[in-house]
Amino acid sequence: MNQPTRNLHQQIFDIIGQRIIAGTHAPGDSLHPDRLEQELGVSKTVLREALRVLASKGLIDSRQKRGTFVRPRADWNLLDSDLLRWQGASAEDENFLTNLGEVRSIVEPAAARLAAQRRDDADLAALADALRLMAEAGTDTHASVEADLAFHASLLAAAHNELLTRMEVVIEAGLRVRDHLVHSADQWADPVPAHRAVLDAVRDRNPDAAERAVQHLLAQATADVDDLIHDPDRGHHA
User: Where are the beta strands (DSSP E) in the chain?
Assistant: First the structure.
């Protein structure tokens, strides 16, 4: 498959996937390939490949007599990176941001405890580098988001637990959406002190302090989301 065809397949895959996540194509709805080909202006081959990938993620299925249809939400692979990206694509998806906050409150304090016990020099360097980039970013939204993502990914990595590290895909997808909202707000607090407290506790090998620092950071993040939902002109970093 050449590059243009691959790109087209990705576009069609994204369009249909986002529609399913948004409920435009709801669970139980039939998908009609002939209509989609005409609407989207693509070949049978491109559409077939897009549908194949969507099926592999649990979104759709095909059966004799019934045709192609959207599967129940319970069958969807919600931890898949593409599904996470689509869920976070809408700034109005309050449930997604709430779910993200709950997952972070379970995962990250525990990760911070382990990181304080297991971190090595490379882990500290990665955390310090992310913190430096965060400080240098200032009000640059893109740079701030990337620095924040790097810090939280480094914190998970410092726990030295392979399965825990895999949670990065969940946290990153939602954090990227939340950060773009928060960091674009007119009013924001300096994110560096709260993150530096986490780094200091991890460096000092103090699990209790590391857990508390992350809990404080997450409480701030929850307040950010609440502020933005009820008053979009407010917001902080976390």
Answer: 30-31, 60-63, 67-70
C-alpha 231 chain-centroid distance: 23
Tokens of 217: 């950071």
Q: Is the four-CA dihedral 93, 96, 102, 108 of positive or negative sign?
A: negative
CA 236/CA 187 separation, integer angstroms: 7
Instruction: Report the distance separating Cα 114 and Cα 162, nearest Å.
Output: 12
Q: What are phi and psi of 60, to 5 degrees?
A: -135, 165
Identify the three-state secondary structure at position 1.
coil
pLDDT tens track for 25-75: 999 999 999 999 999 999 999 999 999 999 999 999 999 989 999 999 999
Contacts made by residues 97-100, CB under 8 angstroms, sequence distance 24+:
97/174, 97/177, 97/178, 97/225, 98/225, 99/174, 100/170, 100/171, 100/174, 100/175, 100/178
Tell me the C-alpha distance between 238 and 189, whole Å: 9
